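User: Can you predict the 3D structure for this chain?
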Amino acid sequence: MKRGLNAKGLAVYETLVTLCLIGVLTGVVIVKYYRVFQEARETAIKAELVNIRTSINLFKMLNGRNPQGLKEMVEKKVMFPARIGPDKYTGPIFFKESYLMEYATDKEGNIIDVFGNPYAYDAIKGEVRTTTKGYETW
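Assistant: Here is the predicted structure, written as structure tokens:
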């Protein structure tokens, strides 16, 4: 009995179909991964901006002025009281922490966002924003 395709031709055909399927699946996975990765970075930058702005407000409330820069908020310490235990007789303790935790920094010591760009801080207005294109208004 004769077949239309010989065994060698069928193997090449199957290999090409398999490679095409692997290519399509790889392309779909890479696009999906990039989208998820981008969304994670956007979520991280939103959280960082909220934390920095909250720290600026706390600094202003306790010191009566805006910080001179983000580096000052990392270097300057503040004491937070806390009570341990359920009753009023348990002694208070104090946490001495920075206004702002140190994030990733560049060579000059400027705090950078998740995209690798420094934050821009206006000491007069007490406002911070990222310098990453497309996210400056967040």
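The mean pLDDT is 85. The helical segments are 7-63, 70-75.
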